[in-house]
Amino acid sequence: MNYTISQITANVKKTLGSKFSARELDSQLFLIYEKILNLSRLNVLAYPDTKVLNSDYKQIVNIVSRLSKNEPIQYILGETEFYGLFFKVNQDVLIPRPETEELAQWIINDFKKATITLLDIGTGSGCIAVTLAKEILSSKVFALDISEVSLKVAHENAQMNGVKVNFIKQDILNAVASDLPVNLDLIVSNPPYIKKSEMILMQPNVLDYEPPLALFVDDADPLLFYRAIAKLGCSLLKPGGALYFEINESLSREVFQLLESFNYYEIAVKNDIHGKPRMLKALNYKP
Questions:
Q1: Is residue 86 domain-shared with residue 52, that is, in the same domain?
Q2: Is there a single domain that holds both residue 46 and residue 86?
């Protein structure tokens, strides 16, 4: 039997309706139809009686089964969108979040027409580094990560989006300034910042599938990565160079005070679209 799109949609909503909101489910269905059937949202809505090949239907059933086990749609499809660009993702890298897009937008607004050299620390999928290389045309971009497999994904994303990024394998907690690019105009990082005690607040699709190395820090020292990056930034950034962080909304005051202790100035915390303090910018000390 060849099912129509409308029949498949109804079946999927019956199967997954208790796990996702109607809006989430519609969004996921459009992504599935685009990936498997090569149909746009407009075509899906305009031609709901289109019959689906049995082979394609089986793929859709498999995807729905994986969704029912909390696997993120981005990992299932192997890709996601960030700042209008497509990125490959798998369980070795975090799924890019909307607040990270807002951080990238902040940097682009500040440096869109500038000639700059920048370093993205903890690049993961490369979403920040690749986006900045794409949007800030006169930029030289470096991106660092401890994970070889993450760097492989990030390199593929740079190639796929037609930009040059210089990738560095390094543990930022043990890095020394002499091993890294210097005289930088900016450093950006979305480091691990979720305290392990906050794990109970996380959804299964995050806890069971996304890499814990990129997410969690010990409650005893939640500023571990911020401290290491801020310290290195003093040596790597030009005087007056900018440091941008994505931050835990519950730690904005602590990160602010940390940067003050390293003599950064013009420190600014910015709220995300939901009004939560999720981004921070500071300038390196001018002697």
A1: no
A2: no
5-16 and 54-68 are packed helices; what angle lies between their axes, rounded to 10 degrees?
Answer: 20
Contact 113, 128 (CB under 8 A): no
What are the structure tokens assigned to 58, written together?
Answer: 């089986």
- Domain count along the chain: 2
Would 74 be classed as within a structural domain? no
Q: Check if the beta carbon of residue 152 is closer than 8 Å to that of residue 175.
A: no
- Provide the 8-state DSSP code for 34: I
Grouping H, G, I as helix, E, B as strand and the rest as coil, residue 166 is strand
Average predicted confidence (pLDDT) for the chain:
96
pLDDT tens per residue across span 65-79: 999 999 999 999 999
CB 270 within 8 A of CB 109: no
Cα dihedral 85, 88, 90, 93 sign:
negative
Strands 85-88 and 79-82: antiparallel
The label of the residue with tokens 């709220």 reads 271
One domain, residues 133 and 226: yes
Domain ranges, residue 248: 80-283
Q: What is the pLDDT of residues 130-152, one digit of tens each?
A: 999 999 999 999 999 999 999 99
Question: Cβ neighbours of residue 88 under 8 Å, at least 6 residues apart?
Answer: 78, 79, 125, 153, 156, 157, 160
Distance (Å, whole) CA 105 – CA 57: 39
Taking CA 98 as the corner, what is the angle to CA 97 and CA 104, rounded to the nearest 5 degrees?
Answer: 95
R_g of the chain computed on alpha carbons: 21
Q: What is the pLDDT of residues 10-69, one digit of tens each?
A: 999 999 999 999 999 999 999 999 999 999 999 999 999 999 999 999 999 999 999 999
pLDDT of residue 286: 82
